[in-house]
Amino acid sequence: MNKIFTLSPRLANQIAAGEVVERPASVIKELVENSLDAGATQLDVEVEQGGVKLIRVRDNGHGISKEDLPLALSRHATSKIINLDDLEAVVTLGFRGEALASISSVARLRLTSNTGEEESGWCVEAEGRDMEARLAPAGHPQGTSVEVRDLFFNTPARRKFLRTERTEYGRVEDVLKRLALSRFAQGFSLKNNGRVVHSWRPATTQPEQERRVAQICGPAFMENAVHVDIDRAGLRLWGWVALPTFSRSQADLQHFYVNGRAIRDKLVSHAIRQAYQDVLYHGRHPAFVLYLELDPGNVDVNVHPTKHEVRFRDSRLVHDFLFRSLHKALADVRPGNEPSAQE
Ligand code: ADP
Ligand code: MG
Fold first, then answer.
1. What is the CB-side half-sphere exposure of residue 245 using CA atoms within 13 A?
2. Nearest CA to ligand 1 atom 1
3. Where in this chain does the entry annotate a coiled-coil region (predicted)?
C-alpha cells in the first residue's frame, strides 16, 4: 500500500492548470475574461513568439486593491461569488477563482493594478516555483495589467505540446476575435511581436457593430447576412445569419454566445442545423454570429472548467425558440421558399 500525501499547493495548481491552461490562447481567454468582468472598456493584448515568450493583457477596469493582490493569485480566491445562490445566477465570466493561480503555477506571472484610489499602483510577482507573492509599488493608471512570461517553463512535458509560433499565434487571434465579438461596447487591440495587428473600436450602433463583424468574419459574410432580433417569452435571439448562398464547406464561421459567453453546444447546433435543413445542401455548413440572452438562473454555466458547455433548464424551449426564430428569418428573405443556388 502506498501512503497518502496531500499535494503541495504548487502541484495542485499545476494539475488544475491542465484543465484551463492548454496553450497561450487559453491564457488570453482567461485574462481577457477577467478584464471584462472588471468592467474594462478598453483591452489591449500583446504577445511575443505566439504568446509563449510573453502575453500581456492591459485593461482600464476597476483594478485590484493592494490587500487583494496576493489573494488574486491564490487558488479558489474569487471576488465574484460568495455562496451557492450566487453561482446559480452567475453573470460574470469567471467564478472559479482558479485561472490566475493555475497560470502562475506554470509561468512567470506579474500582476500590476491600480484601483484609482491610490496615486500609483502595486504589483505582485509569482514565479511558478513558490506561491509566495512579492508585493511592490509600481506605476500604473487605473486598471490592471497581467504579464505572463515563459509559459510552461517549469512543465516541459506540457511545453512539448505547443505548436509552432505561427500556429499558436493563430489560435490567439481566433480567441481574441471570438471575445471581441462577444462585447461590442469594449475596444480591443492585439499586438504581435511589437506590431499592432488588430484594433477594434467600441461599437454601439448597429452599423458600427456590423463593421466589427465584417472586420472579424470578413466583408462577404456581412454582405450575405441578415440581421435577426427576436424576443419572446424571456428569450432573446439577435445577431446575423448568413443566407444559404453563403454556406461553408467547414463549420468555421459559427459564433454562438449565451449571455455574452461563447459556447459550443449540441442542442444549439442541432436547432440551427434544422433551421437551415431545407435550404442548405448536404455537407455544407451555415455561418452565423448569434447571441442568445436569457435569465442567468435558467442556464447552468458550471458544467466544465473552460465553460464552453452550458446546460439549459428548459432545453426543449430553447431548442424550439432557436429553430423557429431562424427558420422564420431565413424564410422571410426568400419568399419563393425554394433552395437558392449554391456555389
Ligand atoms: P475568477 O475570475 O474565477 O474569480 P481568477 O483566478 O481569474 O478567478 O481571478 C481571481 C480574482 O482576481 C478575481 O476574482 C478578481 O477579483 C481578480 N482579478 C483578476 N483579474 C482582474 C482584472 N483584470 N481586474 C480586476 N480584478 C481582477
Ligand atoms: Mg477569471
1. 11
2. 97
3. none
Reading the block at residue 9, the C-alpha cell is 499547493
Look at the block and give the residue holding cell 458600427: 208
CATH number 3.30.230.10 is the correct assignment for the domain at 206-333: yes
Q: How far is the CA of 97 from the centre of ligand 2 (A)?
A: 6
CATH level 3 topology of 9-200: Heat Shock Protein 90 (3.30.565)
- Whether residue 115 has its Cβ less than 6 Å from ligand 1: no
Is residue 94 within 6 Å of ligand 1 at its C-beta? yes
Ligand 1 centroid, distance to 296 Cα (angstroms): 20
Which residues keep their CB under 5 angstroms from ion ligand 2?
A: 34, 94, 99
Asked whether 140 lines ligand 1 (CB < 6 A), one says no
Ranges for all domains in the chain classified under CATH 3.30.565.10: 9-200
Query: What ipTM was predicted for this assembly?
Result: 0.99
| Ligand 1 centre distance from Cα of residue 94 (Å) | 8
Global pTM exceeds 0.95: no
